[in-house]
Amino acid sequence: MPKIYLIDVTNRDGVQTAKLGLSKLEKTMVNIYLDEMGVFQSEFGFPTTRHESHYLEANLELVEMGGLKSIRLEGWIRAIASDVELAFKLVPKIRHLNLSISTSDQMIYGKFQGKMTKDDVIKEMVEAVDAARELGAESIGVNAEDGSRTDLNYLIKFGLAAKEHKADRFRYCDTLGYDNPFTIYETAKALAENVGLPIEIHCHGDLGMAVANSIAGARGALDGGQDAYINTTINGIGERAGNADLVATILAATKSKGFAEKYPLAGAIKLKLASKIAKFASYAFKEPIPKNQPGVGENAFAHASGIHADGVLKDPENYELYSFEELGRGEPEKVETGREICAGEYSGVSGFSHIMGKMEVTFKNKEEANEILELVRYANVEAQKPLVEDELLFIAKYPKIARKLLTLTPLG
Ligand SMILES: [Zn+2]
After folding, report:
1. What confidence score (pLDDT) does residue 244 get?
2. How does DSSP classify residue 52?
3. How far is the CA of 389 from the centre of ligand 1 (A)?
4. Spacing, Cα 243 to ligand 1 middle (Å)
5. What span, in angstroms and rounded, lies between the C-alpha atoms of 228 and 205?
6. How far is Cα 20 from Cα 388, in angstroms, rounded to an integer?
7. Å from CA of 65 to ligand 1 middle
8. I want to staple 273 with a disulfide (CB 3.0 to 4.6 A). Which of 37, 301, 380, 399 is the partner?
9. Among the listed residues 101, 4, 90, the one whose alpha carbon sits nearest the alpha carbon of residue 46
10. What torsion, rounded to 10 degrees, do the Cα atoms 249, 254, 255, 259 define?
11. What is the CA(113)–ligand 1 centre distance, in A?
12. What distance in angstroms lies between residue 137's CA and the mean position of ligand 1's atoms?
């Protein structure tokens, strides 16, 4: 029975967002939290972008060391054979790729401006798929950018060509958020039936329907007999109006009327980490979580009106679809209100040892404390904000990986 998988693209689409970004350590923490949560795959970055190389390699090493347990790390590049070659040159350990190319007439004529025909687009894509396979890719997804403004017959032709060249998945991109649940259902079903590959659903929120479109598209893929892979981002952060929010997508797939019985999520998703991952992304992106964000917003469980408050106190199910505990909310939080010693780029070893001691981390000797402190200082320089506890613990546990993440020397 086909199932729905989650591919989070925060570290690709999320960081592509205008005016927002993450440090390499923050991107790593996102991968760690997604792994803990049980998300199938993280689109963890850009293998042809040189300042990503150390970060990507370090995270692939983290997989080998068991620091990332079950999540698959996949890189996003253009579907061009020379980009595939560059990706393997810069990140030799990369094994999972998504190859992207525009498929709509609008893009082919408006963006490529006569440099490529529709046949050229397919040719370029299959050459990239062949190159990726030859260089050792274990899984390859092909992305039809602007898929929702692409003629369905051409999309099928594109998908069949990808399949013939042994691509593993077809990503249908509603790049502009143009679809609605009815149209994306039909398209995803037609693609699943006619292409015969698992379908990735990539939605944007320009018309306020990213999550609704994601589960409708997933349903289409499953009804067409194929697995679905929904693309999400944490807190819905993404280009323009954003992508399908990770937590809201999980809630929609598991809690909405009658959906989960016929269209189940694969694997065990730990919803309990929802609050933690949302808060971390909000802090790292310096972007507040909207008050009314499903599940994790400040007001998601707030009741003021007399009738609702009375009802929810008698029985929470009167006015709540799910409990705050399920999302990992409600635990008391420790907030320093007195003296506070922070670890910053100009910290000294005594203050730093004090902070780490509070988290029950002790150092063998002064040299070790100094080494970790030095890495923490560098991490501060990159992030330009105090590190969270999990980041400090990560650096103490994986100093070699941290060093690599923080090494931003341009490659030769
Ligand atoms: Zn996108």
Report:
1. 98
2. G
3. 31
4. 7
5. 19
6. 19
7. 31
8. 37
9. 90
10. 100
11. 22
12. 23
Beta bridge partners of 248: none
Q: How far apart, in whole angstroms, are the C-alpha atoms of residue 407 and residue 410?
A: 9
Beta-carbon contacts of residue 109 (< 8 Å; ≥ 6 apart): none
Determine the Cα–Cα distance for residues 381 and 197; give it in Å rounded to an integer. 45
Task: Calculate how far, in angstroms, residue 66's C-alpha sits from the geometric centre of ligand 1.
Answer: 30
Q: Which residue has the tokens 């007999």?
A: 225
Identify which of 304, 225, 292 has the alpha carbon closest to the alpha carbon of residue 313: 304
Ligand 1 centroid from CA 7, angstroms? 12
Mean of the pLDDT values across residues 38-52?
A: 96
φ, ψ dihedrals at 24, nearest 5°: -65, -35
Per-residue model confidence as pLDDT tens digits over 265-281: 999 999 999 999 999 99
C-alpha distance from residue 247 to each of 13, 22, 31, 327, 359 (Å): 16, 20, 15, 9, 28
CB count in 10 Å sphere of residue 364:
7
Structure tokens at 31: 């991968």
Query: What is the distance in A from the centroid of ligand 1 to the CA of 78?
Result: 13
- Residue 66: is its pLDDT beyond 80? yes
Residue with tokens 């790593």: 28
**Ligand 1 centroid – CA 225 distance (Å):** 25
Ligand 1 centroid from CA 46, angstroms: 14
Cα(144) to ligand 1 centroid in Å equals 11
Check pLDDT > 70 for residue 215.
yes
Question: Which residue reads 């323009």 in tokens?
Answer: 240
